[in-house]
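Field log, afternoon session.

UNIT: design team B
ACTIVITY: writing a sequence onto a fixed backbone
BACKBONE:
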């Protein structure tokens, strides 16, 4: 891999400039106003893949945004790595809170990234991390050091639930056949504490609507006499956690796999400073389910959170009114072996049952996804671990994450393949938030580490 590493060192500046160009295209999959830009981004990726020597490059149309496919099969008898990533990004909202516009990327130093970080929506999630694979592939191709067959599958709907990717995978088993799936769409503990993600939470997402009276009412004439849907919704939401911050939905925990004391002790070895955590978020203390540490609350335990809540008068000044309706969007992060459909059903039944008479409740499910865990005794994990050790000089720690990539469980079901989550972002990189960024150190270290994964994986599989 020496020529590959030398090639990377020589081309760093261009690798950065190309990513900056990619980040300028606002590929927001959730907002139809950006549809043209999402398509343009797919073309950008496809052109890149063609340029650096991928074959069979195709912009595969779906009922939604396209999936970019490309491959390089050098020898059918050697291992094949399927690289997955996403080129779509979250909306930039609230845009006023960005120091610099979300789609005008700039490089700035921060305390955590003294060598500079790229600030832009998608810098870390996932354009920056996805593009590391494109550049690592380029480096291996240009130096004739590609040790495995490669297939790329880069989608444009991850941030809206990957529904069409699910269909694409079902219909393309042959084209997607591989030995392992490699994804960089997660994080690691710190730049001097490399880690590999071994678990993702699942997701159940619902929207609720509470209706009181059939129209908005004068809060003096009717106040006290009718169910105010906003009061009621607040009460219903509050009742979903008890005094220990356990979720009160009957059956919610039935399928939760409890970790053994040994596994919990192992987890507790990961470095975590409550002080630093609180300081970074400007809070006096953490908050959550009794009996579990912050690391556990954020990874091996399921949660329920309101993501948005609205209703009534929110304009200037005071308007005395009882609204007819109140709404909330609620996410539940799930852990093995909770099933998103079952949990959605449990939520619905429970939420309807606690609505007082005099109100009507509607629950609408949104996209969800299953949790996933990956073993640490596979050749894929071992190759990833060796690759990190090579570039970081330290063995990476296995770590379960709180985020969700629903497609990972689907890959296992449909293709029978395990996914290796080689993430290089940091939790402090503000993904989905204003001022999202990605360290230059992380971008380059990712590009350097990926080729080692390929070479170790080939060695392990062929030995
Ligand atoms: N890349 C993230 C997920 C992630 C981030 C996992 C960091 C682990 C560490 C992904 O793009 C994402 O945002 N997923 C969504 C779910 C999806 C169904 C919208 C999420 O976790 O909210
Ligand atoms: Mn992502
Ligand atoms: Mn995301």
């Amino acid at each position: 891999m020496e020529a590959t590493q030398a090639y990377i060192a020589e081309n760093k500046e261009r690798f950065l400039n190309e990513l900056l160009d990619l980040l300028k295209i606002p590929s927001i999959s959730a907002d139809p106003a950006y549809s043209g830009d999402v398509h343009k981004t797919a073309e950008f990726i496809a052109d890149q893949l063609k340029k650096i020597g991928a074959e069979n490059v195709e912009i595969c149309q779906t009922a939604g945004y396209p999936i970019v496919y490309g491959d390089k099969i050098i020898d059918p008898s050697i291992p094949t790595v399927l690289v997955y990533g996403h080129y779509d990004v979250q909306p930039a909202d609230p845009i006023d809170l960005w120091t610099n516009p979300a789609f005008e990327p700039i490089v700035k130093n921060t305390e955590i990234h003294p060598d500079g970080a790229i600030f832009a929506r998608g810098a870390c999630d996932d354009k920056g991390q996805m593009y590391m694979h494109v550049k690592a592939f380029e480096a291996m191709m240009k130096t004739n050091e590609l040790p495995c067959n490669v297939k790329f599958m880069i989608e444009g709907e991850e941030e809206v639930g990957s529904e069409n990717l699910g269909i694409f995978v079902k219909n393309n088993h042959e084209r997607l056949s591989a030995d392992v799936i490699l994804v960089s769409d997660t994080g690691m503990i710190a730049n001097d504490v490399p880690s590999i993600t071994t678990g993702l939470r699942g997701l159940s997402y619902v929207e609720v609507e509470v209706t009181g009276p059939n129209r908005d009412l004068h809060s003096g004439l009717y106040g006290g006499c009718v169910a105010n849907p906003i009061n009621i919704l607040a009460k219903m939401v509050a009742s979903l956690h008890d005094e220990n911050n356990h979720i009160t939905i009957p059956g919610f925990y039935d399928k939760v796999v409890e970790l053994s004391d040994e596994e919990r002790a192992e987890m507790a070895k990961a470095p975590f400073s409550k002080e630093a955590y609180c300081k970074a978020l400007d809070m006096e203390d953490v908050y959550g389910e009794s009996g579990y540490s912050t690391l556990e609350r954020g990874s091996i335990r399921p949660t329920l959170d309101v993501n948005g809540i609205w209703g009534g008068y929110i304009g200037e000044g005071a308007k005395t009114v009882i609204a007819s309706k109140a709404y909330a969007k609620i996410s539940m992060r799930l852990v093995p072996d909770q099933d998103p459909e079952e949990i959605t059903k449990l939520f619905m039944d429970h939420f309807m049952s606690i609505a007082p008479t005099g109100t009507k409740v509607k629950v609408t499910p949104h996209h969800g996804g299953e949790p996933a865990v990956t073993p640490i005794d596979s050749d894929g994990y071992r190759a990833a671990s060796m690759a990190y050790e090579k570039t970081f000089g330290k063995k990476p720690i296995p770590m379960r994450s709180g985020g969700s990539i629903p497609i990972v469980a689907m890959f296992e079901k449909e293709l029978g393949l395990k996914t290796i989550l080689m993430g290089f972002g940091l939790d402090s990189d503000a993904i989905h938030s204003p001022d999202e960024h990605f360290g230059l150190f992380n971008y380059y270290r990712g590009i350097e580490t990926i080729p080692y994964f390929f070479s170790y994986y080939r060695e392990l599989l062929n030995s």
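LOG NOTE: The CA atoms of residues 25 and 37 lie 6 Å apart.
NEXT ACTIVITY: expression trials, pending approval
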